[in-house]
DNA sequence: CATAGATCCTGTATGC
DNA sequence: TGCATACAGGATCTAT
């Protein structure tokens, strides 16, 4: 699934292959893909035709392409679970599940394909952050991602350590730290030897910093692996880059040995999905008994 | 305010 | 072979 490393790979591909070309036509073939564009598909097309993407930006799992020479708004993309952005020759073979086509005037086009339709495109106003960089209004509520030079480590540690909820839930909370999804959350927790069910409250500052370091390490390892596969006029996007099978220590590896200690990796249901962990390296927290309600 | 859970969606894998 | 069910999960909404 596209998490920060995959989205960054796409961003780099867009920067190489989709900027400064006049948009000649836009075709929306699946309404759901543009559902977050409040004024509808026709208005989206109207805004895009005749302009060009000025740059390719990212925060967490959000991508955006500012429009025109002095941008005040941008085309925002979120890939959801299965979204892809593909740059193709306009007459290239069709791709599956293409819901939006943005045709440039040089014979290429940007295709948004999305099997499960959790992702989408919309145009949004750019607003300045506290550090004066510009982000789309509807991206402003999420935290900077841990690869951002302006990410505030101390703020993250402080907020994490005030959370009663599970550390893993906190890692997936994009307002605390952005860009981490289910796969890299499990990998980072394994690297830091922390059980995801532990309450944020239970971490020392040092341990919380260890976790942040592990998050950065796993993201940058994945980025290196994902970044190499990208070369041609094809913006790869899916989580299916070589990184997955080669380097994952626990995710998707139920029943196989922990690469560090050899104990059998377990899977446990968590937040309507799965968590994978090593029961020896990552000690489960003691069960907390809820105090009975008096009255 | 913080927190937990439900919900959206469809292709693939599995069980009977 | 067909049919039903589980599963994958990011963001957002609702309820407490």
Radius of gyration: 21 Å
Percentage of residues in helical conformation: 25-40%
CATH class of the largest domain: Alpha Beta
Query: How many angstroms separate the termini?
Result: 47 Å
- Considering the protein shown, what is the CATH homologous superfamily of the largest domain? MutM-like, N-terminal
Total number of beta strands = 11
Multimeric state of these chains?
Answer: single chain
The major beta sheet can be summarized as:
5 strands, antiparallel
Structural class computed from helices and strand pairing: alpha+beta
Q: How confident overall, as mean pLDDT?
A: 88
Note the run of SSEs as H and E. Answer: HEHEEEEEEEEHHHHHEE
Strand content: 15-25%
Shape: elongated
Task: Please name the CATH topology of the largest domain.
Answer: N-terminal domain of MutM-like DNA repair proteins
Name the poorly predicted regions.
227-235, 237-244, 289-295
Task: Write down the domain tally.
Answer: 2
CATH architecture assignment of the largest domain: Alpha-Beta Barrel
Determine the number of helices (DSSP H or I, runs of at least 4 residues): 7
Strand order of the largest sheet: 2-3-4-8-9
How would you summarize what this structure contains?
The chain is an alpha+beta fold. It has 7 helices and 11 strands. The protein folds into 2 domains: 4-139, N-terminal domain of MutM-like DNA repair proteins (Alpha-Beta Barrel); 153-287, Orthogonal Bundle (Helicase, Ruva Protein, domain 3), CATH 1.10.8.
């Amino acid at each position: 699934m596209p998490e920060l490393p995959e989205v960054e790979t796409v961003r780099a591909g867009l920067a190489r292959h989709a900027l400064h070309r006049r948009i000649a036509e836009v075709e929306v073939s699946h309404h759901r893909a543009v559902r977050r564009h409040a004024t509808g598909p026709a208005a989206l097309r109207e805004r895009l035709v005749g302009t060009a993407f000025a740059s390719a930006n990212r925060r967490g799992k959000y991508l955006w392409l500012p429009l025109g020479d002095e941008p005040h708004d941008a085309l925002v993309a979120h890939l959801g679970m299965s979204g892809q952005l593909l740059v193709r020759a306009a007459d290239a073979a069709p791709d599956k599940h293409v819901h939006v086509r943005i045709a440039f005037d040089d014979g290429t086009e940007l295709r948004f394909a999305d099997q499960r339709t959790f992702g989408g495109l919309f145009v949004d106003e750019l607003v300045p952050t506290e550090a004066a960089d510009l982000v789309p209004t509807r991206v402003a509520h999420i935290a900077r991602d841990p690869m951002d030079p302006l990410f505030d480590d101390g703020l993250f540690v402080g907020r994490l350590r005030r959370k009663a909820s599970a550390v893993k839930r906190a890692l997936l909370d994009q307002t605390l730290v952005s860009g981490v999804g289910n796969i890299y959350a499990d990998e980072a927790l394994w690297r830091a030897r922390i059980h995801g069910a532990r309450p944020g409250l239970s971490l020392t500052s040092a341990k919380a910093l260890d976790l942040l370091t592990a998050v950065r390490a796993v993201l940058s390892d994945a980025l290196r692996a994902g970044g190499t596969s990208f070369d041609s006029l094809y913006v790869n996007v899916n989580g299916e880059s070589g990184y997955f099978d080669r380097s994952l220590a626990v995710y998707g590896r139920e029943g196989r040995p922990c690469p560090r200690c050899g104990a059998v990796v377990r899977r446990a249901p968590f937040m309507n999905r799965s968590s994978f962990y090593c029961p020896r390296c990552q000690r489960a927290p003691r069960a907390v008994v809820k105090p009975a309600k008096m009255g």
